[in-house]
Amino acid sequence: MSKKIMILPGDGIGPEIVEQAVAVLKVADEKFGLNLEFTEGLIGGASIDAHGEPLTDAELKNAGECDAVLLGAVGGPKWDTLDRAIRPEKGLLKIRSGLGLYANLRPAILYPQLAEASSLKPEVVSGLDILIVRELTGGIYFGEPRGIKTLENGEKQGYNTYVYKESEIERIARTAFEAAQKRGGKLCSVDKANVLDVTVLWREVLDRLAPEYPDVELSHMYVDNAAMQLVRAPKQFDVMVTGNMFGDILSDAAAMLTGSIGMLPSASMNESGFGLYEPCHGSAPDIAGQGVANPLATILSAAMMLRYSLDMGEAAAAIEAAVSKVLDQGLRTADIYTEGSKKVSTAEMGAAVVAAF
Amino acid sequence: MSKKIMILPGDGIGPEIVEQAVAVLKVADEKFGLNLEFTEGLIGGASIDAHGEPLTDAELKNAGECDAVLLGAVGGPKWDTLDRAIRPEKGLLKIRSGLGLYANLRPAILYPQLAEASSLKPEVVSGLDILIVRELTGGIYFGEPRGIKTLENGEKQGYNTYVYKESEIERIARTAFEAAQKRGGKLCSVDKANVLDVTVLWREVLDRLAPEYPDVELSHMYVDNAAMQLVRAPKQFDVMVTGNMFGDILSDAAAMLTGSIGMLPSASMNESGFGLYEPCHGSAPDIAGQGVANPLATILSAAMMLRYSLDMGEAAAAIEAAVSKVLDQGLRTADIYTEGSKKVSTAEMGAAVVAAF
Ligand SMILES: CC(C)[C@H](C(=O)O)[C@@H](O)C(=O)O
Ligand SMILES: CC(C)[C@H](C(=O)O)[C@@H](O)C(=O)O
């Protein structure tokens, strides 16, 4: 039985990097007999241009009927002046929410070959390997009521609602506890329970579940302190779990600790293991179409997809090994280039991974 | 006419560090004829122990009748199991809100003498000098409705409201524009306007005011990117302005870039220039009472108080010069100690600043 993969290249560098990831998936398919089938769709600015909206209901349905989704990136200056309701980002929020992809896994790993790229001292980050588990379909991103209204005195007021119910907290907490069990056995839950009621409930639920995972050491940290600790001593963390907004901020900070955000994949999954896979970085419109973008985060996202959604762990490991090999060979796209290494284009990097198989 | 200063030592290391700051203020008073008058009050755990609440209305009124407030820090494990409504932190939130201290100024400065303390590479942080302007009496910290309720199906739901009206945004924006005028002329406003309606209004107001400050270059950045850029290349920033919650997170991350949070003061001011001054760090209960805490952030907070609330810029500069001098002398409390320097106690550090006058 074949596995159907929905490819959503999106905008900016999205199409270039996704092209390389698909090439790598195809060679993995040949080699391991994965029986993959590809179908392509539109999201973000590309969909706005074609259909006037960043993700059509039909495309959302198509994606949901596949076995997994591989996404490039969305957004760019071309669509920045559009009405907010139809901006490219809304397509991303719609697919996350529409497919119930509540569990966002964002690893921040320092590749030893790229240790120099970090802005932190080597002793602070060498060997860094954190997994941030971010709730992705709730919290203040989707809470109602929301909007901008005019008060009686004529001035405007903007408002959003930060809301979580126990069941939403529980399912993402379980994802995080289980991930910690498979890793270093440490889970740090991040909240602001000294100020925000909603995160008081968050902390309660984590504490309630903890006894079910006796092999995981649970700790709690306020979000401001977590931001500090990521800068001061990031290696103290194994798995971190937090809500949508704090997760957005902390996962980007953590990714940047590695200095090579062009290397970092992510997974967004629902209850049944169905997932959307995408690089952590954005659409980088400034370098789009130049063939210089780093395709490795997308290639590694494809590997995550094989492992987590398609139960093809062997092929996933082979892709990851191939990526490691090209780094060992000294090949670098511009974003991770340092003197003495060999600067390559997007296509050359993709081809090198294929060749390293 | 004398100037009345309310001293709120608070908890943990608060009393020790405030004691040194008061000693420094007294020698400044003598030297510059400032005519300062001191009165002491209770906040945080100290107030809970005495009155059963973290800040009494009477004490709030006392503070408001002074010319400025100098605060140590609040909180500690002793009060962690109390009902949330009467925790030490609530005293801090109550005084901020009760005195209308909406403008929180948090400088992140790397002292050249302490450059080694940073976890970042020297070239990334040397000369770092950022000012974060954080809105302190609104946003999700104070927004209503808030709470935890039980849904029809029996599960609990927690919620908070992130809300700003135009006038609240405008006044903090003006604080930030004016600060930028006096500094490097660059203001970066941080929001999440691609997701949160309330920050769409935030961005609108900043853009509307910008033409009134033609000498300030205004830019906008999403909060996730701001967290990344602080790690990647913090020296790109001059002044940053943002709401209460994002400001809490980003100011702590920025402070930690310097590696010496024990050095960083902060000011929280209202419309008329009245202010509360406190170190950026917390009450550090683990080292309280040992005489090893760093009093310099509090001493520098006292200097900020003289400059911003009491119009005593000369005395403020003298305190700052004295602090720089003791650093040049190689004196270091434990938190900033490195080999080859001279480790001193809280009291010795305070005495050295007094002597350096
Ligand atoms: C583009 C934006 C809506 C999105 C988010 O905030 O979730 C992005 O920053 C991310 O982290 O995937
Ligand atoms: C103690 C806490 C309520 C406070 C805040 O979140 O504002 C602190 O973190 C700060 O930044 O001053």
TrEMBL record, chains A, B:
It catalyses: (2R,3S)-3-isopropylmalate + NAD(+) = 4-methyl-2-oxopentanoate + CO2 + NADH. SUPFAM superfamilies: Isocitrate/Isopropylmalate dehydrogenase-like (SSF53659). The keyword Glycoprotein does not apply. Gene3D superfamilies: Isopropylmalate Dehydrogenase. Residues 4-353 form the Isopropylmalate dehydrogenase-like domain. Its cofactor is Mn(2+); Mg(2+). Substrate binds at residues 96, 106, 134, 224. PROSITE patterns: IDH_IMDH. Belongs to the isocitrate and isopropylmalate dehydrogenases family. LeuB type 1 subfamily. This is 3-isopropylmalate dehydrogenase. It comes from Microbulbifer celer. The lineage of its organism: Bacteria, Pseudomonadati, Pseudomonadota, Gammaproteobacteria, Cellvibrionales. The gene is leuB.
